[in-house]
Each structure stands twice: as structure tokens, then as C-alpha cells.
Amino acid sequence: MSMNVPLLDLEAQYRPLREEILAAITRVCDSQRFIMGPDVESLERELCALIGVTHAIAVSSGTDALLLALMALGIKAGDEVVTTTFSFFATAGAISRVGARPVLVDIDPVTFNIDPAQAAAAITPRTKAIIPVHLFGMGADMDPIMAAANGAGIPVIEDAAQAIGSTYKSRPLGAIGAFGCFSFFPSKNLGAFGDAGLLTTEDAALAARARLLRTHGMKPKYYHHLIGANFRMDALQAAVLRVKAPHLKSWTDGRHANAARYRALFHAAGLDAAVTLPSEPADRSHIFNQFVIRVADRDGLKRHLDEQGIGNEVYYPVPFHLQPCFADLGYRRGAFPHAERAAAESLAIPVYGEMTAAQQQTVVSAVAQFVQGRVPASAQR
After folding, report:
1. Considering only CA atoms, which of 197, 149, 200, 192 is closest in space to residue 171?
2. From CA 13, how far away is CA 309, in angstroms rounded?
3. Share above pLDDT 70 across residues of the chain, in percent, rounded to a whole number
4. CA 123 – CA 141 distance, rounded (Å)
5. Which domain holds residue 362?
6. Sequence-distant (≥ 6) Cβ neighbours of residue 263 within 8 angstroms
């Protein structure tokens, strides 16, 4: 019999924690303190220890973490920010929202992350920051990126939205650049019950500035020193995250185990030549926020998995330089061939920690059935 396999099973993660989470929510409701307060402050301290950073500022979303980092660094209209063309929209969208120009570069075709050499070459006198993205849970190659940024006297903002707990050369992501930006969107390895995010830094002055900007530049109440915004995390989200955060390591360990099992299953199925699995460079850890494979006929495989009831997702079908909203940047198709090829060939398959071996076998068998031509012709139309 066929087995439906979801891309992510949040209910399986929630069930063992249900009572503890509901108790935490009740505590906040009983306190009637829904904005900032002790749960947010405690979460910040706990995440500093968990991630391995000095300062953590809880915010309203991963997108707002990026926006707050740019604002704290004073990036504005007329400035340029170098970043990858292959990421979730918020990376480039936040740059545009402060009035700056995203300067896009191609990716490393093996890791999907920003090409450090191209990032360095894109720096001009107008460049005010570089935003590398630690895509799918694995760090970008930070040493050459930091070297290029330091040589130009500009900061680095790490988009670590998908990479909480991951490391680069034993250093925690989010503690290498001027800022690290994390997301707690529900589908992340550590997810809230709605939107929430985190900004991290090792710089006390930048942390203080970001905290001020997070609440309309206000300190004390109704006295505004800077023009900030409302980037505050809800106390309910902080309470939920405080329950879930201690389990992050075990959930990540489960993803590691599933990734290793996938490698063994794909190899045993004889798919080494047809399916490219995620790379894992020896100098960095991968938390597998997504497990992204590459195949020549990605769209055909997606249709097949959909028909088999197997969850999958395309991350991301259109690079930034081909998005209609960025047409004014002047890029054309073919400008960044590695990103365009990744957008055409990449497909995420389930890897959540609660997956069973039987579910993984079902996924690999379905992929093998398609790529080895064992799908009836009628099913391929």
C-alpha cells in the first residue's frame, strides 16, 4: 500500500509538548502581559546560551530581523547591499524597503550559498553591507566573505533564518558578522505558533541601538531618540519558544539521522548519478532545515510525488533577478546561470525529525520509480 508522507508534520512535534505549551500560554494569558515582558527577556537569555552569542534581541519575524539590522547599521536610500539572487524573498526585499539597492550575485553550484568571489567583485564605493544567506540550514563560506567585507570596511549581516544552531568552522552562525538574523516561522527547526524572529550580535553598541529601534526608538516611554518601528515579539510566542527551544538539539539530531539514512537509501537504490544530494562541507555543520535534492526533470518528479501523496516543495522557483518586482535592477535571464539552474532542478523532500524509516523508504522508492523510468506514460502527462 502507498503511504502519504507530509513535507512537515508539526502535529507530531506538538503532541509530546502539548500540556507544557498550553501551560505556558495560560501563564501569559493569566498575567495579561502580552507585549515584551519576562517571557521575552528570558527567551533572549536562553537563546544566547543555546546559539552561542552574546546579545539576542527578540523580534516580530525573521523579515523584521533583517530590516532592523539594516536600520541599525544606518543603511538607506542610495546605498548598495550585496547579496545572493537565490533565497527567500525577504533577503532582498528588506534591502529595498530601506531604500537601498540589492546588488545580486550568483551562487556556488554545490552549496547553493552565495559565491564569495562574486560577492567581493560586486563591492563598489556605494556598498554598505553584504548579506550572505545560510541557505537550507548550512552556512555560507564566511571567511572569504568576512575578508572582503573587512577589506572594504563594511559590515556583514548573516541571514541565518534557516540555520539556527548551525556552525562554520566551529563558530556559531549569527556570531560571525555584525548581525545574525533568525526566523521562528512555524516550519523552521525551531518554530513559533506564528511569526517571530531574533537578531543577534556580539557588539554591545549595536545591540543597544537595535533594541531602541525595535520599539520606535523610544526610551523612556514617549521619548523618541531614533525613528524606529514596532519589531517587538509577542509574549505568547516567546512562551511557546521557551518550551520548544530545549528540544532543538534532539530535533536537529533527528534531521541529521534522517539525512544520513537518505544518503544510504538513495545509494542503495542506485540513484547516485541521477539525484544530487545536499553537500556537507567538512568545515561547517548542516541542520537540514530543508533536504534539497537536484534532478534533471524536477517538475516531472514533483508531479509524480504529488500524485503519490509525498510532500515536497520548490525552494525557490524564481531567483531575485527574474522577479517582476526587481525588473528595475536591470538583470536579465542568463545573468546568474548557477542560480537559474538550481531554481529549475531543486526539490525539497521531507526530512523532519519525527519521520520513520518506512516513510523515508517510501520517498526514495517514489523518486527511484520516476527517475528510473518505471512510471507509466499516462501518469507522466
Report:
1. 200
2. 21
3. 97
4. 17
5. 247-380
6. 277
